[in-house]
From TrEMBL:
Domain 23S rRNA (guanine(745)-N(1))-methyltransferase N-terminal: 17-51
Top EC class of this enzyme: transferase
EC numbers, comma separated: 2.1.1.187
InterPro entries to which the protein is assigned, alphabetical: Methyltransf_25, Methyltransf_Superfamily, RlmA_N, rRNA_m1G-MeTrfase_A_prd, SAM-dependent_MTases_sf
Protein's name in the database: 23S rRNA (Guanine745-N1)-methyltransferase
Pfam families per UniProt: Methyltransf_25 (PF13649), Zn_ribbon_RlmA (PF21302)
CDD domains found in the cross-reference section: AdoMet_MTases
Domain Methyltransferase: 130-214
Stretches the record annotates as Disordered: 98-128
Amino acid sequence: MPSAVPAALLDALDILRCPTCGAQLTVRDRSLHCSQRHTFDIARAGYASMLGGGGARSGDDDEMARARERFLGSGAYAPLLAAIAELAEAAVPSLAVTEPPRTSRSPGPSVPAVQSPSAGPDPSGAAPTVLDMGCGPGYYLAGLLDRFEGARGLGVDTSARSLRFAARAHDRAAACSGDVFAPFPLADDSIDLLVDVFAPRHPAEFARVLRPSGALVVARPGADHLAELREAIPGMVSMDPRKEERLHGALEPFFDTTATRELTYELPLDEARARDLVAMTPSARHVPQETLARSLAEQDSSMSEVTVSVLISTHRRR
């Protein structure tokens, strides 16, 4: 196999599937190929281009992707990452096993790790797999892999700009393009932990790709999330008062909720961080640059902090 193909992407071939016909994939000439001759290029940045011919409905443009990378890289959402990891470990204890399970490519005898009955090892012997759907630059995926040393990861996003960052976010993280509203290019029962952080959701596909012992972690804005910023800047997207009702209505046919946590803290905010925070959200498409600059100038130093309020829940497949 070509040495230029990222090792993490090669390691994910056992779970990746052709998005056109569902067949298994192999690597040849820096592309993914299936038995039906469907071909998907591996970008020079290291991610696999697996969107269907119709493309995706949305995705970060270059400015949004760079703003998100800067903002998350500043550590502003580190408490959120820590909370997600804690809930993930409680929901899928096998993730915390530091010695990774033996894969079929590894020599020597297999020594099974001691794990809870609800989170048994993958029968194939593969390492526990973390999927970040709507991964952006791969910040949360990389953080989870740092914590769970025996796991491997896959980040999926519609944005080629974001995937440039995600493909190099961690040496155990593969990256590919994919549309959350379409069938995922993944095998059934292949994922141990699926995280969805401020991203759209496809509950039926989440349930299909999760192993019976796996868990879904969903993080979404709370009612007061960025309240000061939304009040100060005209045009920012408002919170849907029925967001929680809609979420649970969509998940209920496929998942049981096992835990919920509310995370709230005050985030120090300067003009640069405020600009990136607006630029990385859907509000970027509704707030003209002139309006943003004027609003931030009018605030001057009066808004030195902004409220971060996030609801995080874990879910088990029904």
